[in-house]
Amino acid sequence: MSSTPAAGLQNLDSTLREDRIFPPPAEFSAHAHIKSIEEYETLYKQSIEDPETFWAGAAKELHWFKQWDKVLEWDLPWAKWFVGGQFNISYNCVDRHALGARANKTAILWEGEPGEVRRLTYAELHTEVQRFANALKVMGIHKGDRVAVYMGMTPELAIALLACARIGAVHSVIFGGFAANAIADRVNDCSCVAIITQDTSYRRGTEIQLKRTVDEAMPACPTVKNVIVYKRTGSPVHMVTGRDWWWHDLVANAPTECPAEPLDSEHPLYVLYTSGSTGKPKGLLHTTGGYAVQTYLTSKYVFDLQENDVYWCTADIGWVTGHSYVVYGPLQNGATVLMYEGAPNFPDFSRFWKIIDDHKVTIFYTAPTAIRAFIKWGHQFIDNYKLDSLRLLGTVGEPINPEAWMWYREKIGHNRCPIVDTWWQTETGAMMITPIPGAIPTKPGSATRPFFGIQAEVVTRPDADGNFHEVPKGSGGLLVIRKPWPSMARTIYGDPERYKKTYWSDVPGCYFTGDGARQDADGCFWLMGRVDDVINVSGHRLGTMEVESALVAHPKVAEAAVVGRPDDLKGQAIAAFVTLESGNPPSDALKDELKKWVAKEIGALARPDDIRFTEALPKTRSGKIMRRLLRELATHGEIKGDTTTLEDFTVIAKLREAEEG
Ligand code: WTA
To answer: Where does this protein hold ATP (predicted)?
Structure first.
């Protein structure tokens, strides 16, 4: 790791202190799974002293075809959980409820953007998942095969995941906002044999051309033999004979019974790509048993799920939040899960609040970036709605600033609903630091305490000999996790060395999260954002490298450096510094062209907010771009930090000229 983490930490201590504190409402605690801070602390202590007994207790609440022989096998950084056990997460999400008392309970309550509503009971979900699992088998898809999923938010997307898991196929969901190149990179990285997609999906009143984008990617995806297309909107699409198949034709001919395959606890469940500071996106691999247990237990305790809840997580299934907290966690709990297809501002800014009132949503889980947008749109879009069904609110994806937290509490939660600010990552698979709503007092802007079994610490950056220590309470440092946990990613698909190097090398013996944090006197954690070159735009992680690579791929661009700068709405915005190939004069038209280019190469979420042309980029003598200086310039319009390691001091003057020019 370069000097970046230390640079990032300089500012950590200056963060404003927040001393408001909100104990759990007595009414809420009375009916909660975990009812008091004492109960949390006792259970937490036990779970840390003997994590294996703790997690085994949780695992026993689920269905195993065969119980494990050993809870944990740990050979840093390689973990195996519930070794020797046989499990199927699809069985636990569906069959366990469909064959029991929840057969007629609504499993998925879906609202399309145009307004239509579909309800699938657990029994119906059972049928649909089995039929589609049989369709996958007919397509020649076997246990262990990788299957890409590129869909909009329809019940069929959840069905596709559950059907893959049922037969042991490994899904790799690609967010529907990604462009053809990004699809091809991901599909090729894990050699997917098939892609499941849909014709188009609705978003903000227009249609997203999912199938057409897959068609564009296909020439670059030699391993894909079949494309399965779910008909959502009925818009015309081009079907290639022998390669493309309609979902409805396949299931019409498929038998209705497909028993869930007993899978080894460590059988791969999915690959999900996320951004790192360098290189191509990493395909994090999650496996079966441990992932199931922790997504199950965190959903149960953190959302305090009760039988009559209507639970809504607004995340797209294209991200890890959708995997763990739209599909696997809540369904394993037998919850009623609301899924909404479209945008929060269609047909107007009140859509979410209308959905909450119409469907009597009780638990609402969203992202700080969405909350900031609601604040900006204004309370007139909220005031007409009762929101009295709500009993719990949650956030995830980036730090939430205390004022947004307070707004969320007052305007949406009417000062009645606890807020769970949940910290976790694609790599951790499930929540790690989070309030337990009936037990832990909350503070605006703090993710509060570690979940059971999770040993989180804030430490100094290791010196050259690898020595480091825990920082005193109140000081900033690197957030690490000491011990393995069940839902941790097992590796980076196809690149175990990179997994080891990225997560288990910077702080010897620990998992390094890439985040800075501090702990207050009460033991509450305050997350301070990334300390590496990852940008968090609207809660979505982007590596600076990815955007830089896309820019450099443009024929007029010589070199590019990308940094994040604070943005009121998105959390971070993307600022790009670009040097041009000679003979190409800088112009506003070229700025626009480059922004469009990046959107086309990666997807709209990676579109740079600012582009600055410069004659040169600041580099160290070893040739590393000094992003720290660019970050300062993009944020404050000037550079005050240490520039002694610069190779060429005139660069700064040139950058300033670019800034003014
Ligand atoms: C950030 C999303 C502060 C953090 C589940 C982390 C947060 C990255 C929070 C993971 C939170 C997520 N408070 N920061 N409650 N939740 N983050 O992989 O920087 O998309 O490392 O997983 O988001 O993003 P990812």
So the answer is: 397-399, 421-426, 515, 530, 541
Residue type (1 letter), 93: C
Distance (angstroms) between ligand 1 centre and the Cα of 102 equals: 33
Which residue has the CA at smallest separation from atom 22 of ligand 1?
Answer: 425
Index of the ligand 1 atom closest to the CA of residue 425 = 22
- CB contact at 8 A, 286 and 488: no
pLDDT of 553 reads 87
Best mutation site among 286, 424, 479 for ligand 1 pocket (most ligand atoms within 8 Å of CB): 424
Amino acid at 473: K
pLDDT band at residue 139 under the 50/70/90 scheme: very high
**Residue 93, C-beta contacts closer than 8 angstroms, at least 6 positions apart:** 162, 165, 327, 328, 331, 332
Give the residues across from 225 on adjacent strands.
none
DSSP strand E in 496-570: where? 511-519, 525-530, 534-537, 540-543, 557-567
| Rounded distance from Cα 448 to ligand 1 centre (Å) | 14
Q: Average pLDDT in the 134-140 region? A: 97
Token pair 């097992």 is found at: 490
Q: How far is CA 585 from CA 201, 591, 617, 654, 655, in A?
A: 40, 11, 17, 16, 16
Phi first, then psi: give them for residue 225, nearest 5 degrees.
-95, -30
CA distance 64 to 84: 11
Among 44-48, 99-103, 145-149, 558-562, the range scoring the smallest mean pLDDT is: 558-562
Peptide bond into 5 cis (omega under 30): no
Three-state DSSP class for residue 631: helix
Contact of 560 with 456, CB cutoff 8 Å: no
351: phi then psi, degrees, rounded to nearest 5: -55, -45
DSSP letters for 237-293: ----TTTEEEHHHHHHTS-S--PPPPEETTSEEEEEEE--SSSSPEEEEEESHHHHH
117-125 contacts, C-beta under 8 A, 24 or more apart: 118/155, 120/155, 122/94, 122/97, 122/98, 122/334, 123/98, 125/94, 125/98, 125/159, 125/162
What's the start-to-end Cα distance of the chain, in Å? 34
Tell me: pLDDT of 546 over 90.
no
Rounded to whole angstroms, the Cα distance separating 225 from 242 reads: 9
pLDDT tens track for 37-89: 999 999 999 999 999 999 999 999 999 999 999 999 999 999 999 999 999 99
Ligand 1 centroid from CA 582, angstroms: 40
Residues in the chain: 661
What pLDDT is stored for residue 343 in this prediction?
A: 96
Cβ contacts of 597 within 8 Å, gap of 6 or more: 550, 551, 554
Residue for token digits 């944090």? 517
Q: What lines the ligand 1 site, CB under 6 Å? A: 274, 319-321, 396-399, 421-426, 447, 513-515, 527, 529-530, 536, 541
Extract long-range pairs of 74-77: CB within 8 Å, 24+ residues apart.
Answer: 74/484, 76/504, 76/509, 77/499, 77/500, 77/503, 77/504, 77/511
H or E, element range at 148:
strand 146-150
For residue 567, count CB atoms less than 10 angstroms from its CB and return exposed for 0-12, middle for 13-18, buried for 19 or more. middle
CB crowding 172-186: b at 16 or more within 10 Å, else e:
bbbbbbbbbbbbbbb
Q: What are φ and ψ of residue 263, in 5° steps?
A: -115, 150
Point out the ligand 1 atom lying closest to the alpha carbon of residue 274. 18
Per cent of the chain over pLDDT 70 is: 95
- Identify which of 59, 33, 55, 35 has the alpha carbon closest to the alpha carbon of residue 46: 55
Question: 117 near 111, Cβ under 8 Å?
Answer: yes
What's the CA gap between 328 and 40, in Å, rounded? 24
